[in-house]
């Protein structure tokens, strides 16, 4: 039986084999994407983008830059605004200003209430009180000038009683 089955297969001629191989080659040739598909697809994208505004793919400023150096006289230099000059106050005016300082008043109230001050508050208070002392010495004021008249009367009365 084996011999009969093998005999049923007929051998193909060389011409038939060549024709089949040519057909297979044609099929393989047309497999996949057509040649030049990269470029053809971009044409389709260009048509789609032409309806929309095409965007510049470059990143950065589009501001034109001159390639020729302009002379220094043509260049505009920014004008610096002068800083306002500090007004020089007379010692009397400065003393009045320090006495009317609300922040200084608040800190003095805190000191009278025995509250703890922060480092910044303490430095501010010390600097202002030192400046007040300097101004009072400069103006010639003494502590006696600011004592109440009642305290003076009591002092005089106590002195008279002692004698």
Describe it.
This protein has a domain at 91-162. The chain has 163 residues and is mainly α. It is built from 7 helices and no strands. Helix content is 57%, strand content 0%.
Write the layout of secondary structure elements.
Blueprint: H1 2-8, H2 14-29, H3 37-51, H4 91-99, H5 102-112, H6 119-139, H7 149-162
Helix pairs in contact: 4-6
Search tags:
163 residues, mainly alpha, 57% helix, 0% strand, rod-shaped, GTPase activator activity, ribosome biogenesis, YihI, GTPase activation
Short description:
By secondary structure, this protein is an all-alpha fold. Helix content is 57%, strand content 0%. Interacts with Der.
**Biggest β-sheet, characterized?**
none
State the total count of DSSP E strands: 0
Gyration radius (Cα, Å) is: 52 Å
Computed structural class: mainly alpha
The backbone outline, from C-alpha atoms, is: rod-shaped
User: Hey, roughly how much beta strand do the residues contain?
Assistant: under 5%
Helical content stands at 55-70%
Low-confidence stretches: none
What is the CA–CA distance across the termini? 164 Å
SSE string, helix = H, strand = E? HHHHHHH
The average pLDDT is 76
Number of helices: 7
Subunit structure: Interacts with Der.
Protein name: Der GTPase-activating protein YihI
Biased composition (Basic residues): 1-12
Biased composition (Basic and acidic residues): 13-23, 41-59
């Amino acid at each position: 039986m084996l011999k009969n089955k093998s005999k049923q297969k007929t051998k193909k001629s060389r011409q038939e084999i060549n024709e089949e191989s040519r057909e297979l080659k044609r099929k393989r040739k047309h497999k996949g994407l057509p040649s030049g598909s990269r470029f053809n697809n971009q044409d389709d994208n260009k048509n789609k983008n032409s309806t929309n505004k095409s965007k510049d793919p470059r990143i950065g400023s589009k501001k034109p830059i001159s390639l020729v150096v302009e002379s220094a006289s043509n260049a505009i230099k920014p004008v610096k605004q002068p800083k306002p000059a500090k007004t020089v106050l007379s010692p009397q005016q400065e003393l009045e200003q320090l006495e009317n300082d609300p922040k200084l008043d608040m800190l003095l109230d805190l000191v009278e209430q025995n509250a703890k001050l922060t480092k910044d508050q303490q430095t501010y208070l010390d600097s202002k009180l030192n400046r007040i002392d300097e101004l009072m010495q400069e103006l010639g004021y003494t502590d006696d000038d600011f004592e109440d008249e009642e305290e003076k009367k009591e002092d005089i009365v106590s002195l008279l009683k002692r004698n």
